[in-house]
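Hey, I was hoping to borrow your eyes for a little while. I've dropped the whole record in just underneath, so have a look:

——
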Amino acid sequence: MELVMALKFKSKVDVSVSPLFCDKLSFTIDYKTNSERAHIVSAAQELVSCKAAFRCIRSPYKKGIGIYQGNYPNRLRMLIQWDPKYPEASYLRVDFNPANADLDDVWVKLNHTLPGGIGDYLGKAVFTRLDAAADIYGYLPHQLAAYYPQKSITQTNSKSGVIETLYIGTKEDANRVVLYDKMRHVKEQKKKYNLTLPFPDCPTTRVEIRMKPCVGADDLLGIQNPFEKLLLRPVSAFQDDPSPLWKLFVAAVQARGAQDALLLLPECTRKSFKAKIEAASADWWQPIKLWEGWPTMVSKVLLTPAENPYLAIADDQQGSKKASQEPVAA
């Protein structure tokens, strides 16, 4: 059962935050030789022929296969692409969701498809996108004020005048913050793919930072905590202020986000209102404590022996083979 950091509020909302997890992972490997490229094509054809995958072409690659949840068409669990349309792109790209995918199956498919097996994933892959995420139980996005220094709100999706999805930063940023209503997301997924998915037991906001680390496996652990600068405060915990301007400001926060709402104010008022947001109680939001789960998350997405029995067995077999080849002392 998943452990959470829980805390009760004076507003009597039971709030908890899930451990850190990876909601999307993409990596590339630039295979140069004809033999390596031929291996990928042959391995993909084998997966298609045994109906373990289906052809799935998506830009900017000319060829690809998709591994789905159940029979095609269905929810895409893993995407393998090769033969890019543009010469500057790496030859192979792989995309999957570690939070939902069967990681044992991911290991098997990668070991089968990559010319050097799983060793290429650990030694040659460049991680181009990694979505680090956590779920906040007890609040919806419009009930939270989110602020990130030196970033602007670039998009909001709303219904009935309140935010359902909030984007802070651009797609080109190294770190883009996204908050969205998880229950609404599940409903959309069920409707789109006709899947049986569990609904959250309470109002839930997913907070994820879409990262573009562009590093190999050895450098993932050294990534700095992008959550540390993210300020999250519940609107219900704001200080009481009877002034009409403050009430209008709070309404703007719920409709446009805290950063946009602050920019609507004169500078002197902006500083005092931002201070009120920072003063709101939110002991459940502890980004440094949340980041303590980063090494465990990295271990999981790298399919290390602690997380993947197949890799542990392969290591044991390799060790036994090496030992059997060593000369026996007289």
Summary: The chain has a mean pLDDT of 87. The longest strand covers residues 126-137. Residues 134-285 form one domain.
